[in-house]
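Could someone model magnesium ion with this protein?
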Amino acid sequence: MDYKFYLDSLLKYLAEGILIVDKDANVVFYNEPVTDLAGISMDEAFGKNILDLFTDLTPETSTFYRVLKSQKAMIDHIQTYTNRKGRTVNILTSTIPLIRDGELVGALEVYRDLTQVKELSERIFELQGSIYNKTGQGKPAKGNGTRYTFDDIIAESEVMKSTIARARKIAASGSPLLVYGETGTGKEIFIQAIHNADPVRRKNIFIAQNCAALPKGLLESILFGTTEGSFTGARERQGLFELADGGTLLLDEINSMDIELQGKLLRILEDGVVRRIGGTRTTTVDVRTIASTNEDPARAVDQGKLREDLYYRLNVVTLVLPPLREHPEDIPPLVNHFIAKYNRRMRKNVKGVSGEVMNLFMKYPWYGNVRELMYTIESIMNEIEVDEIQLNHLPPSILAAEAKADPDKHSTRGTENLPSMRQALHELECDLIKRAIRAANGNRARAARLLDIPKQTLHNKIKKYKITWDTVTGKEVPN
Ligand SMILES: Nc1ncnc2c1ncn2[C@@H]1O[C@H](COP(=O)(O)OP(=O)(O)OP(=O)(O)O)[C@@H](O)[C@H]1O
Ligand SMILES: [Mg+2]
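Reply:
Sure, complex below.
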């Protein structure tokens, strides 16, 4: 096999930049994306020392120098610099020592261009900062970064009523809190309600940060802030802990946070003191930290995704939200609530669902929970022209669930109208995928988990059926 050809093609079309130096930090290899990132032509770079190419760097700050010295890999390190063409680039690098027969021969660095991700997250950060001023004086509820209070939560079943009663008590305590529930069970709506039920905190801000969306280094600088002039090129900026002083900080999907960062988080929870990255000064903050996870936290600890000591700190108070299939009594009031909501939004006048539909809804497992129910109603109401939702308005996947539960029901259909098995399976598959994408709010990894298939399989099927976010929801792709 012509490995060299394959390898050359791979390196050429890879989006990541790859740079290799010898043991004296002279460039011996790099691929095309590096020319873009570094603003250096191939000829210029070859054989040069890394410090001559990146003149801002010193042996102390260069990742290559550090790795060649320590012979230990540096993974996911964030760097910001101005390249030779004057472009400010934010890159995520992983630098690995190359050791052959026990001897150090050089180092390899893989770059990912983070400029766009970083610009977006900085814009969000600045917008958050301008919406809520730091001291957060006297902002009324719902002018504080939240949309929900306990009054917005539909709960008629005993289990949900007692969950609300518990959440109200928890609101008063101010302790760190861990909220666990499957996707779409209402974790965020509950957490916002808890913030708004605290008479003091509700006047201050509520900030939610998803821990799965950002690479470790970026998340760390967003949480803790940065000091100016550190070699990462960072500006002097407060982190979310400082920004949320007096209020609540929600760390969503805590089980995706890097383990080392979880250790730093634990220290803040214990003593309430934050130190900006690269800085020496510490600040004491009064932030209620709420973490949420859609994975059983005890299992996440077993699997090494959640630090045990952090778990014990957070687990002092835990709120568990049950999956919708465990409290189907709430389905009728939720259905009516969402119909009313979309009637207002779409200027329609749908009165309700037929008895058969409601029966089916009560039996259906709703793996995407309340969010899936909400999107199902929304999608039906987009199309409907009569004033009652009937069986024929339902997506095939929900009907299929009924056929499975009651196989005789559809057996009287004329055989001549039967679709081919392949066509029927394709329709079902396509529909399931759309619903999972909707339930996962466009997050493919989560959609794959909902369907219990590998991400790559989902990706292939999305391509095969030409499914796009707007064919699923009629809206633009969320950020
Ligand atoms: N009991 C409820 N009453 C009314 N609306 C609800 C209820 N539970 C959830 N919702 C609505 O369902 C949607 C999903 O809820 P939410 O975002 O709180 O879920 P989540 O548990 O945070 O999900 P994920 O893990 O996917 O982030 C939201 O639009 C929310 O307003
Ligand atoms: Mg959520």
